[in-house]
Amino acid sequence: MSEQVLNLVIRKRQEQGEGVVVLDLVDPSGNVLPVFEAGAHVDVHLKPGLVRQYSLCGDPADLTRYRVGVLRDPASRGGSVAVHELLLEGRKVAIGTPRNLFPLAESATRSILVGGGIGITPMIAMAHQLTAQDSPFELHYCGRSRSRTAFLDELAEADFAGCVQTHFDDEGTEQKLDLPAVLGRPAEGVHVYVCGPGGFMDWVISEAQKAGYAEDHIHREYFQVEVDASGDSFEVVAQRSGKTVQVAEGQTIAQALSDAGVNIQVSCKQGVCGTCLCTVLEGQPDHRDVYLTDEEKAVNDQILTCCSRAMSKTLVLDI
Predict the structure, then answer these.
(1) Per the database record, which ranges form the FAD-binding FR-type domain (predicted)?
(2) pTM for the whole thing?
């Protein structure tokens, strides 16, 4: 998968909360940047072989800059550490053009936005866009502690500040998120959006399902998931390349194909971004990603080669 790369400059860098860096990226010639919609992310090229995805958290109406917020994760596979150590004010950085896998539903009559920790980033852009569209919404921002939380000043000063509610683990019970009350009974046109740590997201999604929200009214974006590479070995046929490989237990399809000289572009390595998506011509995938919807997985004609495996003895891929 190829993409246009933008060569930008870090105009401003802020440390916010605990371990969050917020970067303003601009065109060095002062040109406006490509249009993006709320929910979009960009691929940030940190160094050779290290590309990570970060949500755009700025106002989509402001194309003079792209904003990203990155938490330094102690369990980082290199991405967040590289952002914090390498992306300094004045440095150049290459990024991909915005892609949106987490868009706002055009048909929504009201939106419930729920962000946990650094999962607030796409929600900020959504709040800006919904405000511009005069579309009703509420934004719930959950964090461990007010002192450790980023973007609080920005949200308090925003045009939509009246739509924002914050919830902190170490403060009184009266301000904690009462999710069943927030979700209520599903009304026509109400959509729920969630982003944050995996356990937090699973809780919000489960509560929305229990409340009766339809699956296509519950929208999610995962930042990081655990990849399970266990399972028996199986065969993969790369039809267009004319090669057949054996994928061992603990090995990914992408790794096995790469070892055989069939290169697939891989980015997140967790089944989140969709970069390594391939078409399945024959066989039954064992889907382990969070990129494809349940409906897309049921069709069994696509697979994320960075994490998913096979339920059949052989998979034939169009690559």
Answers:
(1) 2-105
(2) 0.81
